[in-house]
Amino acid sequence: MSDYMHPMRFGSFISPIASAPQRPVDLALLSEELGLDLVTFQDHPYQPDFQDTWTLLAWVAARTSRIHVSGNVLNLPLRQPAVLARALASLDQLSGGRVELGIGSGGFFEAMATMGAPLLTPAEAVKGLDEALDIIRGIWKTMDPSPLHVAGEHHRVAGAARGPTPAHEIPIWVGAYKPRMQRILGRKGDGWLPSLPWMKPGDIERGNQIIDESARKAGRDPRDITRLMNVTPQYNAESLADLATEHGISVFIMGSDDPREIRKFATETAPLIRDRVEKSRTTSRTPALARTGRAFQDDPIPEVLASRVLMPGDRGYNRYTSGYFRGAKPGVVLRPESFSEVQEAVRFAARHRDVPLGLFSGGHGLSGRSLNNGGIVIALDALDEISISDGSRVRVGPGARWGQVAKELAPFNLAITAGDHGGVGVGGLATTAGIGWFARERGLTIDYLRSVEMVTADGELVHASAQENPELFWAVRGAGANFGVVVSFEFEAHPVSEQVGFAMLTFAPEDITTFLVGWGATIENADATVTGTLMLSSSGPGAQTPVQALIVVDENNPDMVVERLQPFAQLAPMANQSVQMVPYSALLDLPAGGEQQHGHGEPHGHAGLVRHLDHDVAAGLADLLTSHSSLILSIRSAGGAVADQSADAAAYGWRDANFLIAMLGGNTEEVQQQWANLVPKFEGMYISFETDTSPEVLARAFPPGHLNRLRRLKAVWDPSGLFRDNFYIAPDPKGVTGTPQS
């Protein structure tokens, strides 16, 4: 076996003694003080001499601020998996993402039976663990709107609601000693957590081999599975370091209730292990790799990026395995912190055209194309500058989020119309179009973009504006993901009222088609300061569909706000209503600590733009809502000032559309056919809400003349197609003359 190259971590393994209830807490506090990464506790609920481990975990999480907590391992037969999953997610939220799940099938079956657990055989307990992992994962999979069904023999849920969402992707570590458990771990687990004193010669090698083979058969990378080991004071640093370098153990957990042993482990043993492992890793690499210590496909990571690069198993890597809706497992995450480092990252990516390349700004995105499986991700979340100069000029980094931008501009009574959710990242929206709460009054986000600094496919940093590289600037405003990495945006902010009207209206229309036609006409005839969005969910055939309307009126006078809302009140009976005066920045407020992202799987969404909500369009949308499939439909205002600029002003060309229609979910043949019936009625497509990136869909994303122009520009700025993983525009050199300006 070999080193899996995971970062070294160290923890403590403490007995939850009931006779001295404060003692395990004090040892946990000591573990944090000494810099250990993890504190764990035994779990034997049938043992009256022990405190309840779950209660202790919660108490310790509240008393500490940095260290992670886990059972070692939690007794599954006495901890119902769906409830356990909710408890873990809740504690993870409350602790700021510091909870891990160590779990086992239990070993003292008769003792467990005295506490009400069924008397299981070892084989039944293993089967139960297999079922429980599906339930726990399913409860955490909150981006799936469908109820959770697991019809297990020993554990089952029948239509359970999913949630809450953990604050981070909680790893599942399994205490597995036998091949069957190890194969389950290889398919479904995140870490192997045995105890060294219980291991016989050859057990580690055999266990690793079984886990790795099982992982590969399941289509997983064995390197994604952490190898942990409970140890006791009898093992010295040299022997433990050998376990790391020869067998891939990267987390050592000291089992002792003696504070002197814990202190010695943290201050003497752990540093020696870390030093020996690092020396072994360094000397085993090529001279070029030894300078950086990390490589991807045997290619050394550039030195300027090496200290912050993340690979599977690294602490912090999980942040880049989930977008807002989509899950992924990149092969390497490059995290530049300057323009020059972005250039190095792009040049590195150019040497690996055989793998996907994602550009990750860090914000709320639907399609999740900024992440990938097995490829390179250039994470731009550190480039989050927001600075104001020259009155209303604003320089913003791609890693900032629009909620942060609105908050920074609020004291100056300025804003940049940008989306309808504060968690949206600047980089993705500002290279697409930007349809937000002021669209009808102010137009698109790209209409306020004055220049960009961007790194092109050859690794060069270029400036693009109406005066310099104007064709590139044209392309960036609507198809930016195809032309490079924008590292800085310069916007012209516009004035905003000190407060705006924000209405939340819930309608109960008798006929959805009639309501949608009326809504469309009312919005089109409303004052330009009025912009609105409808949110609808499928309700099934024959059921009444409630409609939530969100309307913003850019007006500081409450009486004027109410007057401009009056026409909407006549559309249908209302089940609920609320009208407030709030600062614009409050509409984009982010939760404390930012917006967590826990997307898994593959989202399915479609988008279309229409000039009017006429009867044919409205009837087609009403049909969608009668589906048995779970889906969410939104209809956003996209007219008014959007049409003030020529359709040729930027790569985004659908200026005449008054409405953006987006659907999320509904991935069934029935719904897909209903959507296909709607497509001929659309004016065009908004790529930020579309998950299908096929060439046929691309043809709807841009008007024909725009697409031809973009293909010619692609041949100039990215002829090899380095940037190809988000609505790839194939280069067409026909008609290309000259070279890019620099």
Low-pLDDT stretches? 285-292
Strand order of the largest sheet: 3-2-1-11-10-9-8-5-4
Biggest sheet statistics: 9 strands, parallel
How far is the N terminus from the C terminus? 51 Å
Would you tell me the overall average pLDDT? 91
- The structural class is alpha/beta
What general form does the structure show? globular
In total, the number of strands is 30
Count of separate DSSP helical elements: 23
The Rg value, from CA coordinates, equals 28 Å
- Helix percent reads 25-40%
Strand content: 15-25%
Can you describe this structure?
This protein is an alpha/beta fold. 33% of the residues lie in helices and 20% in strands. The protein is built from 23 helices and 30 strands. A nine-stranded parallel beta sheet has the order 3-2-1-11-10-9-8-5-4. Helix 2 (53-63) links the parallel strand 2 and strand 3 (68-71). The protein is globular and about 80 Å long. The model is unreliable at 285-292 (pLDDT under 50).
Secondary structure blueprint with pairings:
Blueprint lengths: L8 E6 L7 H12 L4 E4 L11 H11 L4 E4 L2 E2 L5 H15 L5 E4 L4 H5 L8 H19 L7 E4 L4 E5 L11 E3 L4 H10 L2 E2 L10 H15 L8 E6 L5 H11 L1 E7 L3 H25 L3 H6 L2 E2 L2 E2 L2 H4 L25 E3 L4 H12 L6 E4 L15 E4 L6 E4 L3 E4 L5 H8 L4 E2 L10 H4 L9 H4 L6 E7 L5 E5 L4 H10 L5 E8 L1 E2 L4 E8 L4 H14 L4 E8 L9 E7 L4 H12 L4 E9 L1 H4 L17 E6 L4 H11 L5 E7 L21 E7 L3 H10 L16 H7 L2 H14 L25
Parallel strand pairs: 1-2, 1-11, 2-3, 4-5, 5-8, 8-9, 9-10, 10-11, 14-16, 15-16
Antiparallel strand pairs: 6-7, 12-13, 17-18, 18-22, 19-23, 20-21, 20-22, 24-26, 24-27, 25-26, 25-29, 28-30, 29-30
Helix pairs in contact: 1-2, 3-5, 5-6, 6-7, 8-9, 17-20, 20-21
